[in-house]
Design goal:
Blueprint lengths: L2 H28 L27 E6 L6 H24 L5 H28 E6 L2 E6 L5 E6 L3 E7 L2 H6 L1 E8 L6 E8 L1 H25 L1
Antiparallel strand pairs: 1-2, 2-3, 3-4, 5-6, 6-7
Helix pairs in contact: 2-3
Length: 219
């Protein structure tokens, strides 16, 4: 066999193999497999914990404490018990001459609990506080809410105000003094365990201030 015939035969044999390879590559592309030519997806930036700035985390949240209403709740329970006793005396013992007083007392009990319930709801919604590693948020208002913030690096001092009953119940108000022009004095009103909360705020304030000072010194 001559050299030209051998070259022709080799070309004829190689043709189906090349065609077969092309068909296989087409089948892989049609099935939706990833191709080397497709661009890689862009990396997504990490979300900041707590929904704030990058690296900002929520470390404490608080509301106006229900302990502030404890004495009024006890009074309401006693008033209700008195009304129930009076009703039992009237309907069980037949003391109908007390019926008018029972009606008046019943109205007073209903009004008292409705008013107390409204005050509880309003106090819980109107006072909400959140501390992060960088800022202190103070939300106030019932129908129209206002959100204030104080950067921890601007806080200069904190102190607690408590009444005698408040010290017994473990509730109080924290006053925050800062260099924030729009909010030089902020109040965290009627919260549980104010001493622990004040220590927590001061701890993260010192951390934030030390971090800022270190960055400035490095520059």
């Amino acid at each position: 066999m001559s050299t030209d015939e051998q070259t022709t035969q080799s070309t004829q044999q190689a043709g189906p193999l090349l065609t077969s390879n092309v068909i296989v590559a087409s089948d892989v592309t049609d099935t939706g497999a990833p191709s080397l030519l497709d661009p890689a997806p862009a990396p997504q930036p990490p979300e900041a914990p707590g929904g704030g700035l990058e690296g900002e985390e929520t470390v404490w949240e608080g509301h106006y404490s229900f302990r502030n209403f404890l004495l009024r709740i006890i009074f309401g329970v006693l008033l209700t018990a008195l009304w129930v006793t009076l009703v039992v005396e009237i309907w069980g013992m037949g003391h109908w001459n007390w019926e008018f007083f029972a009606i008046l007392l019943g109205i007073a009990v209903v009004v008292f609990w409705v008013q107390l319930g409204y005050r509880l709801l309003r106090a819980f919604r109107s006072h909400y506080y959140r501390l992060t590693t960088r800022r202190l948020f103070i939300t106030s208002g019932f129908f129209r809410r206002r959100l204030d913030q104080v950067e921890l690096m601007r806080i200069k001092d904190l102190y607690i105000q408590q009444s005698m009953v408040g010290s017994w119940l473990g509730i109080g108000t924290i006053t925050v003094l800062s260099s924030e022009p729009s909010l030089p004095r902020a109040h965290i009103v009627g919260i549980d365990d104010p001493a622990r909360t004040m220590d927590l705020i001061w701890h993260h304030t010192r951390l934030e201030q030390d971090l800022k000072t270190t960055k400035v010194d490095q520059v």
